[in-house]
Design brief:
By secondary structure, this protein is an alpha/beta fold. The chain contains 10 helices and 9 strands. Strands 1, 2, 3, 4, 5, 6, 7, 8 and 9 form a 9-stranded mixed sheet that branches. Helix 1 packs across helix 9 and helix 4 packs across helix 6. The protein starts with a strand and ends in a 5-residue tail after the last strand.
Length: 280
């Protein structure tokens, strides 16, 4: 099967594998409790069946995880990622994301290169609309990877529901709205977004709440009038969306299903056909 996947230069770190396993264990009780969109590779024959099925809403979606940011680098330096269990810090090991200096961190040089590496794929996709989390690392990744090119006019729209799992981790706290507007003047911002982050608290968001935000974001994509678009967001958010809100049974063998639904590396881009009919 054919799909568009762009892998970052930096290899997958063992610590991210551990984080992936931790998130997966916390998501397991939620699998099967929510309606799921149907997912398939771009050229899978089943997509033609979807187009002909009443009630189907089929779109080509490019999912992107932000490039490496300062908090990812902090985890690399600490040689481990999040050590919190069920949203609470553990006394045995400090979580690198509990550093107040990491509020809404910028991309590192490596992260910017990962974002720029997506430009060839962006040219091929010729997207006109990019939805993006309102956090700096996602915004910068979107602009660097999908900025107007070859005469293609691209619009960027921040969507609050596409943020990373909220609470506790300072890296997931948003900078002031006016600061971000000054840094990213080409982005359209939600009218109801407050100046200061009113969504982040010192309590970690539950996985159920994260999944519900992921599903809300899928509804935003489904209601977009364009037939193809991108969503630039975060690892835990994508993990929740892909593990709980998506049905990959149309993606051929188990090997193909695992390949298309796996954890996103920093800067990774993955394009899939999505049938939103089951959730609408």
């Amino acid at each position: 099967c054919r799909c568009v996947i762009s892998f970052p230069v930096v290899a997958c770190w063992k610590m991210e594998s551990v984080e992936n396993q931790m998130h997966h264990q916390e998501l397991l009780p939620l699998i099967g409790k929510y309606k799921q969109v149907l997912v398939a590779p771009l050229d899978d024959p089943i997509v033609q069946d979807w187009w002909q099925t009443e009630g189907s809403v089929v779109k080509e979606i490019t999912f992107v995880r932000h490039g490496q940011a300062a908090h990812n680098l902090a985890a690399i330096m600490a040689q481990h990622g999040c050590s919190c269990i069920n949203g609470k810090p553990t006394p045995e090991r400090d979580c690198p994301y509990l550093d107040p200096s990491l509020v809404d961190p910028h991309l590192t040089d490596t992260g910017e290169q990962q974002a720029l590496a997506n430009r060839p794929a962006a040219r091929t996709l010729a997207l006109h609309k990019v939805y993006v989390s309102p956090l700096r690392r996602a915004l910068k990744t979107a602009i660097l990877g999908f900025a107007n090119h070859d005469g293609v006019d691209v619009t960027f729209e921040a969507v609050g529901s596409a943020r990373e799992q909220l609470g506790l981790h300072y890296c997931d706290q948003r900078a002031p709205k006016t600061t971000l507007q000054a840094e990213f003047p080409t982005v359209t911002w939600p009218k109801k977004m407050e100046e200061h982050d009113d969504m982040w608290t010192e309590v970690r968001e539950s996985k159920a709440a994260l999944v519900e935000r992921a599903i809300a974001t899928l509804h935003v994509l489904a209601n977009e009038e364009l037939a193809k678009m991108a969503l630039v967001t975060h690892s835990s958010f994508l993990k929740a969306m892909f593990a709980v809100a998506m049905d990959f049974s149309s993606c051929g063998s188990e090997v193909d299903q695992d390949r298309l639904s796996k954890w996103f590396e920093t800067g990774e881009l993955r394009t899939l056909m999505v049938n939103f009919g089951p959730i609408l």
